[in-house]
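Running log. JK asked me to keep both predictions on one page so they can be read side by side. First protein, sequence followed by its tokens:
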Amino acid sequence: MTMNFHRFLPATAPLSLRQRIRAPLGALIGITLTALVGLVAVRQGLPLPAIIAPMGASAVLLFAVPASPLAQPWSVVGGNGISAIVGVIAASLIPEPALAAGVAVSLAIAAMTACRCLHPPGGAVALTAVAGGVAIRDLGFGFVLWPVLGNSLLLLAVALLFHRLTKGTYPHRLQPALKRHETDDPAAAARIGFTSTDLDEVLKDYDQFLDIDRGDLETILRRTELRSYRRRAIHVACDSIMSRDVVAVAPDTPLKEAHELMRRHHFRALPVTNEQAEVVGIVTQSDFLYKPRWVAGRPRIGIIQRLSLAFAGTSAPNDTVKDIMTTPVRTVRPETPVADAIILFAEGGLHDLPVVRDGNKLTGIISQSDALVAMLEDRRPAEASTSHRPTEPT
């Protein structure tokens, strides 16, 4: 009889090699720097210890699962700080160590939950306040400030810097809402499958803490629905439906000229290409509406957009397309299935996608209308086969 050990392994999402390397590297840097600064602080007169063991658990969350609600800044600082306060109070009021330990961890969980800063290492912090020995108990409420808050803030600062330098996303940002038009109508992707109310009802019935942001969960489920459509769709490539006679503009094209092109051709967007026909951006109706200000019927770069460009480190604005274009721009390849383009339209609120060949050179453009026609064509073979299916004898 053979035992299947896979039954004992949790089902986890696949991770790239890059992410598998980033997490341990971040923990190495974070804990090392926190400990070194802690040692310097102790030499300057702060009491021992320089670093406490629960910081190791905090590092796992900060660097391995930075998208978790348990790893966000308020969870780290608030969870550890509140748990330290609870642990010190329990240690001072309850003489029996075993009971004090249980009460400290229990009340720490309750307090963190109430303050919306649940952080698993907080339980270890509360337990340390009770069982950390005479040196820890003698610190009293000083234990909250150092080492707990001191260590937590140092580790958090390193995590913020590390994720920024390695192109990570931390603190975790809520998933952007699906594109809407300031009306009561839901976005296109939200009109298929389940509704947000359905998800809220299921989560209420589930009645358990989930280590994932609710917005992330909804986004994952909606993307799963769209990927399911792609799997069922008949393969039609973008090059079979794209527009090939594309009107593009250069980055130095005056805003007024670009706007006149869009008005004359009734375009919603214009690809922006350099001298090598490489796509470097896209300028849309929304770019013209919100980024320049209009003076005597001419678009001009306003003070807000000028400040935005200055902070981005770009060249001085001169009322040309490069001052308002969207970059980087989402593109597709000629061989990209139309189903993939539909997913980009639905998830990103896009209306037009440049089609590029090798070297990011512009070869065409696909619009939502093009994708809609292709999707309708997808249905014809299925409907035809259904209509010609022989009828079962009665």
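And the second, directly underneath as requested:
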Amino acid sequence: MLDYDEEAGRYDASRGGEPRARAAAEAVLALLPARPRDLLDVACGTGIVTRRFAAARPGLRVTGVDLAPAMTCRAAARLPGAVVRGDSRRLPVRDASVDAVVSVWLLHLLAGPGEVRRVIGECARVLRPGGIWVTTVGKAASHNVGSDIDAVLAARPPSPVHDGPEDVTAHAAGLGLRPAGHGRFTGHGQGRSPRRTIADLRRGWFVTLPPGDPRTEGFADRLASLPDQDRPRPDPVFHLRAFRKGG
């Protein structure tokens, strides 16, 4: 996994910046109740999306939680007094205290099904009855846009997938969360170019090809042979699922 303290300084610029943040926030907000009182953004990162929730819904109390100190510092600058450092597996939030929980680009980072279930359980715990949890699903698959880059990377060792929509839905059902809608948004600015993919490969972006692995340079060489080294391929499209807490 990437070191998100080290990543914080370049996180926004390398992941589409404000256009992607706007698309993500709008898609999430479309799945929320009309008048939620409290929203918890789990793994809020730099707060670039989180602050848009607060701006879009006057009167909505928004709190961001993230484990990486450098991320929480950046988020706190965007939402003063509304960001806390905390682990998504042990949220520093009371039971049944919020109307909405958001976890965008989180589940795919977790170590296995047990951790995924644990995090979903925490999201369910802090929701009031009738509250909504919104999460991204199938993140890795979203990046496969059928490009020549994807054709090269298809031969790399596969990563375990813990955030597939069917698995997430099954975990949620076991924790009293029922499907309540779905959405999608474009990851503006995240279309990969061959040169950028080589750089990501060499810094450990693709976890099954760690830096120093002999296979890494083989993939880098094949990517370097592709045409239009600096032309981004199509942007990914990310998928959201919403779940409602019973009661």
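Observation for JK regarding the second prediction: Residues 113-126 form the longest helix (14 residues).
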